[in-house]
Specification:
Blueprint lengths: L7 E7 L2 E7 L1 H8 L28 H8 L4 H11 L1 E3 L2 H22 E3 L5 E2 L2 H11 L13 H8 L6 E2 L1 E8 L1 H11 L4 E7 L5 E8 L3 H11 L5 E4 L10
Helix pairs in contact: 1-3, 4-5
């Protein structure tokens, strides 16, 4: 379960009665879209249905039976969310906006590059400042994924930006290959790999271009700076610099 402070109220009025449940805001939005696939008890603040959640009042059982055909809260809670309205306070809305804003900035930073600077990644601070300059406001009631294109449209007059992928060949020396390649192979889509006669490992990975700096930092960290990397255009090429 989640804390009451993290929950929003979903309210349904039907047959002259009111029903309220307390649920995680993101989970509530996913339920309304028919996309929730988690465990209900992990995203609710109370295993209960209320007439007035703030007072703790509960509806009559006959009202539950009439509207939902059951008195089981775990069956009723999703129905209230899906059919009702999500009530959020000004403070909850502000917190949701801040959370979604951070998610949006991180998502753009991981995928976007500056086409005027040899496709160098944009730092999150630059993206955040550009979004503010563009006057872009995140909608806390919509998934971040559905707002990325609109955010990019707002950013383009402010900074040169585009979403792209990069393909990198990396060679890990034999002393580090065993453990390092296991960490690196999951960083992106592994296009191909090859173990060399000297025990070194060569892999070609494709991942969002904005993650280049993180990738190089990771590779250098787990190989003490002894790995070799090269950005390649031809995925059949596996040589390194």
């Amino acid at each position: 379960m989640i804390s009451l402070d993290d929950a929003v109220t979903a309210r349904l009025e039907s047959h002259g009665a009111r029903f309220e449940v307390l649920v995680d805001p993101d989970a509530a939005l996913a339920m309304k879209r028919g996309e929730f696939d988690g465990e209900l008890e992990d995203v609710i603040a109370a295993r209960d249905v209320f007439e007035n959640a703030s007072r703790g009042d509960r509806p009559a059982e006959e009202d539950l039976e009439e509207v939902f055909g059951t008195t089981d809260p775990l069956e009723i809670i999703p129905a209230v969310v899906e059919r009702g309205e999500i009530q959020i306070t000004a403070e909850q809305r502000r917190e949701m906006e801040e959370q979604k804003h951070r998610q949006l900035v991180n998502k753009i930073a991981r995928n976007a590059v500056n086409p005027q600077m040899d496709d160098a990644p944009h730092p999150p601070d630059r993206i955040e400042a550009a979004l503010e300059e563009a006057g872009f406001d995140i909608d806390p009631m919509q998934p971040v994924e559905t707002q990325v294109d609109e955010a990019l449209d707002a950013l383009r007059p402010v900074i040169p930006i585009r979403f792209d992928e990069v393909t990198v060949a990396v060679q890990i020396p034999a002393d580090y290959a065993g453990s390092a390649q296991a960490q690196i192979r999951g960083y992106g889509d592994l296009e191909r790999e090859e173990w060399q006669p000297d025990g070194s490992w060569v892999g070609v990975l494709t991942f969002p271009a904005g993650m280049q700096n993180d990738f190089y930092d990771k590779v250098n960290d787990i190989t003490s700076g002894q790995a070799e990397t090269r950005i390649i255009k031809d995925k059949d090429e596996i040589s390194t610099r």
